[in-house]
Specification:
Elements (H helix, E strand, L loop, with lengths): L11 E12 L2 E12 L3 E5 L6 H8 L7 E6 L2 E2 L8 H10 E4 L12 H11 L4 H14 L15 H13 L5 E5 L7 H16 L3 E6 L11 E5 L5 E5 L1 H6 L3
Parallel strand pairs: 3-8, 3-9, 6-7, 7-8
Antiparallel strand pairs: 1-2, 1-4, 4-5, 9-10
Helix pairs in contact: 3-4, 3-5, 4-5
Length: 245
Amino acid sequence: MFGVMCDDVMKEIINIKKVSCYYDDKIALSDVSISVSEGDSIAILGANGSGKSTLLKLIVALVMPSNGEYFFEGVLVNEQTIKDKLFLKTIHKKIGFLFQNVEHQLFCTSVRDEIAFGPRQLGFIEHDVETRVKDCLSMLNIEHLVDRVPYHLSEGEKKKVALAAVLALNPDVLVLDEPFNGLDHRTKAFMLDFIKIFSKSGKTVLCALHDITGTGDVFNRAIALSTTNKIVFDGICDDFNSAKY
């Protein structure tokens, strides 16, 4: 399902310039600047309240900057541009978002319909919808769940179903908010392997984590946010592991 990109120079797809975000008078991000290129696999690290989830929601256009600018593929993302339904649909197709609490994105009465929902909303013909459903079921080894009710599943199964629903649109960017919370060791290992395969296909991954320990070589870059909601590290994971933040 995923194609491998061959360009030696990966283009920039996300550019966040001096962005701050506030909820009422409480700061969530402070003067954050990040550039993300195709093929980056980034661990977003920080304590609770450091702004990890807000940063991911900014990237998927669920929140807007209070100050600063956010560009996706060179286009400014703000209150005005997201009113353009075509542009908003483009972002939602190209950027797949897995919520920290996946129950917030599971609402259909069967796993099959959950995975098919996105392609159907985009007007895919039913034959192509079924092909995508089968591919995603196979990719995540959940064929046996196809007729089950999503909210009756285990936590690990729910996360796989929600991820399958995101992947059904074949996004270029995968954004994951604390995807390993509540998972047993086996399911976490499966998810890590999947993220690595997804990234090696030339896709882009941003994944919020409390701790990079135990993730091996899945991520090639780490960005750390402090308790003051600022970036205090942006570099390769090995350097982060040897630093004290």
